[in-house]
Amino acid sequence: MTTAVxxxxxxLTGPRNRNRTTLVIAALAVALVVCALLAAGIGAYRIPLGDxxxxxxxxxxxxxxxxxxVPESVLWNxxxxxxxxxxxxxxxxxxxxxxxxxxxxxxxAEPAVIGVSSGGAVGAVACIVLGLxxxxxxxxxxxxxxTGLLTVFAVYAMSRSGGRTEVVTLILTGVAVNAFCGALxxxxxxxxxxxxxxxxxxxxxxxxSQATWGKVLAVLPFALVGLALAPRYAxxxxxxxxxxxxxxxxxxxxxRMRLVLITLVALLTAxxxxxxxxxSFVGLVVPHLLRMIAGPGHRFLLPASALGGALVLVAxxxxxxxxxxxxxxxxxxxxxxxxxxxxFWLLRRxxxxxxxxx
Length: 358
What we know:
Blueprint: H1 2-8, H2 15-41, H3 49-59, H4 69-104, H5 116-130, H6 139-159, E1 160-161, E2 164-165, H7 167-191, H8 194-205, H9 213-229, H10 234-240, H11 244-249, H12 254-276, H13 282-294, H14 298-322, H15 331-354
Antiparallel strand pairs: 1-2
Helix pairs in contact: 2-4, 2-14, 4-9, 4-12, 4-13, 4-14, 5-6, 5-7, 5-8, 5-12, 6-7, 6-12, 9-12, 10-14, 13-14
């Protein structure tokens, strides 16, 4: 399957394709700005677009005017932290998904394959069930981030042999570690009381309802580092799409690049999971959809996936808090409801075009 996929994912070049990729990125950026402004204004307390722009301009010293006390507080203390956190989490998951699919040479890969989500869940569940409170309100976030990173490095270390890491071994090790983490979560739940089980269930469903500027600042450094470094590996990833041996002959240190990119994926995903819980399918669906629209070149795919992931999550979060007002739908449930049918269609389409998986 990998060989077949690689033959179809060699990047396209030429002025026509460059124009298309530029157009797609511009459209994503415009849609993201529009969606973010809508998300800032729509909710139980509606704030007109003109007031939002006036408040922005006032804060930036560009004129405008301050809002009354209530809308100013709702906009800057409730809505904007949530919108910005959705931008960072969605962008991180989208970019991490594109990196994973490039590293594995398979458009069906996503960050959860290497155990970062399940590892983060183990840390969060352990905190909740055991009542740990070492870092106050940050305890669950800190433990989820740390255990997510540790799980990824454990998967990488266990799959490494003779100074090399084979993709198949990495995937199978990730499957085994994911199953082990699932068992650990089950054991914790077996010993938990009803209140802890409810809290664990809510965390695992994914949500941005607890967004604060503090959480934004906690994710920001990891998201900026990951999103800034990822485009530097666009050309090596394009060469890797030709196969490991050709990439080595063209000067790519495949093993070193794989370690660096898996570390970037772990940082991006662990930081996102730590503040939002488990939000699935964004890292799988967004890069593949963009690859279908404008081709597989990573110079386009990495920034476009970050923009697309941010757009999807801002829109999904807006839907989660408005579709069932005054209640709020779990964000991870919404992304899974949309992503699962798409993933099934993707499997069918890939099987039809390739004539099977073997």
